[in-house]
Amino acid sequence: MTTTTPRVDLHPALDVPPLRDLVHPDRELWTPRELRELTSAVASELTTPLLEILRYDRERRWWARLGLTGGVELWLLSWLPGQGTEPHDHGGAAGSFTVLTGELSEEYRYPGGPVRGATRPAGSALGFGAGRAHRVLNRGMIGAASVHAYSPPLVPTREYPSLLDIPDEIPPLPARRLPLERLRELADQEDP
Ligand SMILES: [Fe+2]
C-alpha cells in the first residue's frame, strides 16, 4: 500500500486548476519577484472567487488562508478604514502583496535607511526580501482587501514599537522544514 503525502493545501473555494498551478507545489524557496507574480496573478485571475469569500470584521483585521505548500503561504486579508498592522518584519522570509480592492498605505524601512511611505492602490503589487520592515494601514474611507504571500512559510513576524527601532541587520530565522500537515496546524494558529 502506498501513502500519498499531500503537497498543497488550498482553500475549498479556490481549489481550482489555476491556483493549483500558480502555487508550484514543488518550489521550495520563492524569490520576491516570484512572490509578486503569484499575488498579482491570484488577484487578477481569481478576482471573482476571492470577492465571494471576502469578509470584513469590525473587531480586527480579517484573513483567510488561500494556500499552503512546503515553500509558500498565501493569504487574503481585509482592512476596514483605520485597521492596520503594527510595525513588523517577516523574520527573514521574503514576501509580497497585491491590493485587490480599495487602497492601502504602507510605511517601510530597510535597515539603516529612512522611513518611506507609499500609497498602494488596487492593482499595485510588490515583492520584498528579508531585510525590510513595514507597517500597513487602511487610511481610506472604504474597506480594502489584499493578497499576501511569504516564503519560506510560517516564519514568525517580529513587531517593533516604531520602524525607527528595527535593528541595523535583520537576522534571518530558520525556516520550518516541516511536513505540510504540521505546517497546516501551525497556520491554523497564526495570523499572516
Ligand atoms: Fe507584513
TrEMBL record:
Question: So which domain of life are we looking at?
Answer: Bacteria
Task: Name it.
Answer: Cysteine dioxygenase type I
A Pfam cross-reference name: CDO_I
Q: Which family does it belong to?
A: Belongs to the cysteine dioxygenase family.
Q: Which organism is it from?
A: Saccharothrix longispora
